[in-house]
Design brief:
Layout (H helix, E strand, L loop, with lengths): L3 H4 L1 H15 L5 H12 L16 E3 L9 E2 L2 H11 L1 H11 L1 H11 L4 H31 L3 H25 L13 H13 L7 H11 L4 H35 L2 H28 L2 H19 L1
Antiparallel strand pairs: 1-2
Helix pairs in contact: 2-3, 2-12, 4-11, 5-11, 5-12, 6-7, 7-9, 7-11, 8-10, 8-13, 9-10, 10-11, 11-12
């Protein structure tokens, strides 16, 4: 079994807190988790073993691949971070149960607005689902590194400042459509912007909130659409990763480690979402833009100076 110093109770708890706080804020959970993993020394090609001392494989040795693909500390950590996103999903389900109940009634044919909201979320989800399946390996190979993440953080920070300034001039806080009133074109536009978040460090929530701003949603409605769309996107990622590396992950870390991460992520995400909605309604996005720029500078200093 992997040594506690590599991914033990403390490390799993810290990653759960960071994931929960940053998942729905437009500040890039990837950037924060890279920095956190760096200080926790969780990067490396150490091959993980189960409690019996056997190597844990993601892909077992075969005639085509005699060596197999072992689970390493790096890939195990990345899979763990995706799995514990389920906790962030649970937080939004609890906080926005009324919206989700509306969708359920819509599916049952009892609420037209619920049907329209579900349609809008699905239209916004399709672009990233297609692109992620087609280009995930290329993205991981060429964009999942310190420098691309730093650049994404900085550029995203500037983008937030520009869009927030435009939105303050053009849209009143209490104006704009409700989520079910968005057109298919507007939802597809938000979905297309979400695809930019495949570039690690960009932030899925940042791109979908910016998309909501650009179709003239109020700050709170833009955040709400981002959170609900995140349910679909993150759930798809959790299911995909769970099928692919769920068993090897539990063989290496045990079932309780991901469960702990999910619980901690759920609690911290709930607090982060509540705070963000209140803050956005009063102050807008600008502070997140400045924060991203500062974080980009910090990461550049840590990794390159």
């Amino acid at each position: 079994m992997v040594e506690p110093a590599e991914l033990g109770l403390f490390e799993a708890s810290v990653l759960g807190v960071v994931e929960g706080i940053t998942e729905y804020l437009p500040i890039s959970s990837t950037g924060h988790l890279i920095l956190t993993a760096h200080f926790l020394e969780l990067s490396g090609d150490t091959v993980l073993k189960d409690k019996s001392g056997n190597v844990v494989f993601v892909e077992m040795p075969s005639a085509e691949n005699p060596a197999g693909v072992p689970l390493t500390l790096e890939t195990g950590k990345n899979a763990y971070l995706i799995i514990i996103q389920f906790g962030a999903i649970v937080a939004v389900v609890i906080l926005y149960w009324e919206r989700l109940l509306t969708i359920l009634f819509g599916v049952l044919g009892k609420n037209r607005n619920g049907v329209l909201l579900l349609r809008n979320l699905m239209v916004a989800f399709i672009p990233i689902a297609v692109l992620a399946l087609l280009f995930k390996d290329l993205i991981d190979k060429y964009l999942f590194g310190n420098l691309p993440v730093i650049l994404a953080l900085f550029i995203g920070g500037v983008a937030i400042l520009l869009v927030d300034r435009w939105h303050r001039r053009k849209v009143k806080d209490d104006s704009g459509p409700d989520l079910h009133e968005l057109t298919l074109r507007q939802c597809a536009f938000i979905g297309a912007l979400q695809c930019v978040a495949l570039w690690p460090g960009t932030s899925r929530s940042m791109m979908t909130i910016i998309g909501g701003y650009l179709v003239r949603l109020s700050p709170t409605k833009a955040a709400e659409f981002s959170f609900l769309l995140g349910l679909v996107t993150l759930l798809a990622a959790c299911i995909y990763t769970g099928f692919k590396v769920g068993l090897p992950l539990t063989n290496a870390f045990g079932w309780w480690m991901p469960l702990l991460g999910c619980i901690i992520a759920a609690v911290s995400a709930a607090f982060a979402v509540k705070w963000m909605v209140n803050y956005l309604g009063k102050h807008g996005l600008a502070v997140f833009g400045y924060y991203r720029i500062v974080l980009a500078v910090v990461l550049a200093v840590v990794f390159y100076l």
